[in-house]
Specification:
globular; 42% helix; 5 helices
Length: 123
């Protein structure tokens, strides 16, 4: 059975790239283009992994992380912030909000899956 990964990302090109890479690597990708839909999909599908953009239109990725961690969601879910926010302290802020890891955009299609899996395995 394929591992389910929920992607919460508002940029269509980024969503396409992430979904493509995940599906090609034998993962099942679910897509949400905003935080509210992402939280609903997470509750409904209980994914093993959630990739969250930080800058979203309705609520930011930090709020989503906190909401997911305070939710009835599987406590073993791995949450990874995938964001262009790369200023000092952003990684710490994401981890503090409940993310298990942090990947900077633009992602490298050649190494993304390996980088994601290394965060999952380190957890």
């Amino acid at each position: 059975m394929k591992t389910t990964i929920l992607i919460i990302e508002d940029n269509e090109q980024n969503m396409y790239m992430l979904s493509y890479l995940l599906n090609k690597s034998n993962y099942k990708a679910l897509e949400a283009f905003n935080g509210i839909d992402g939280i609903k999909l997470a509750q409904k599908n209980n994914p093993e992994i959630i990739l969250i953009d930080i800058q979203l239109p309705d609520m930011d990725g930090y709020e989503i992380c906190k909401e997911l961690r305070n939710n009835e969601l599987n406590k073993n879910v791995t949450i990874i912030a995938v964001t262009s926010y790369a200023m000092g302290g952003d990684r710490e802020k994401a981890i503090e909000a409940g993310a298990d890891g942090y990947l900077e955009k633009p992602i490298n299609p050649e190494t993304f899956i390996e980088e994601m899996e290394s965060i999952i395995n380190a957890k």
